[in-house]
Write a structure and sequence with these properties.
The chain is mainly β. It is built from one helix and 16 strands. The strands form four sheets. It has a five-stranded mixed beta sheet with strand order 3-1-6-12-11, with no helix packed on it. The chain has a five-stranded mixed beta sheet with strand order 4-5-16-13-10, with no helix packed on it. A four-stranded mixed beta sheet has the order 2-15-14-9, with no helix packed on it.
Length: about 220
């Protein structure tokens, strides 16, 4: 047991990991468009619970259901909650779903021409507050430049690199539950998941990519207490 004074953090970081190949294998691409009405976004699971598709964790203070999608964060007035989303493949090659099958279950005898889709990368498109909106500030997107590190192959030493950190942030105003949906898009470069260079307007395959090869949009519903 720690003998240090009890620590009450100001910032609660929430990491959201999604299984892009599994989402597309079971649901296929959709035509969710790049708008904030989210009427075209597809619920993950019968009630949008996201089990098996979304995995959430937070910093060590006050949360319940870590590692799952039905995730609760417990904040106090003044806390800042920050959400970041990433794919399990971190945007690199993701095996398991042949690109040439348009994200449908693999077909027998497809042969070597079936290549795995690559670059699954999710993006939080916004938040829909179902109840308790008075308890937090509206979540806003924040973009910052942060440091990262890698081994420089030419020297074998650790080198610094800069990355763009995109997250959404809200501040807890008062005690009380908040039920929210977190619509997100998945992007890749498979040939059938693009918006046809129409900027997500019409006639595209997955629309909402804005020229960035969007596979579609999905949503699920965690909680804040």
């Amino acid at each position: 047991m720690s003998t240090l004074p009890r620590f009450y953090p100001e910032i609660i970081d929430v990491a959201v990991m999604i299984d892009g190949p599994r989402i597309l294998y079971h649901h296929g691409p959709n035509k969710a468009r790049d708008h904030v009405g989210f009427s075209d976004y597809v619920q993950l699971g019968p009630h949008g619970e996201g089990v098996g598709y979304v995995y959430m964790v937070s910093t060590w203070w006050d949360s319940r259901g870590e590692g799952g999608s039905e995730f609760r964060v417990f904040g106090k007035p003044g806390n800042r909650i920050r959400w970041r989303i990433q794919s399990l493949s971190m945007g690199g090659v993701a095996d398991g779903v042949p690109a040439d099958t348009h994200m449908t279950p693999a077909l027998a005898g497809m042969g070597p021409e079936a290549k795995p889709a690559v670059a699954y990368r999710p993006f939080i498109r916004g938040f829909v507050i179902n109840s308790g909106a008075q308890n937090i500030t509206p979540p806003k997107q924040v973009v910052e430049t942060v440091n990262s590190w890698h081994v420089d192959p030419s020297t074998g030493k650790i080198a610094r690199a800069q990355l763009t950190d995109v997250y959404w942030e809200a501040k807890v105003l008062q005690e009380g539950p908040v039920v929210y949906h977190m619509p997100f898009n998945i992007f890749c470069n498979c040939k059938d998941c693009n918006d046809g260079d129409d900027d997500g307007d019409d006639g595209g395959h997955g629309g909402g990519g804005g020229g960035g090869d969007g596979c579609g949009g999905w949503t699920h519903d965690p909680f804040i207490n």
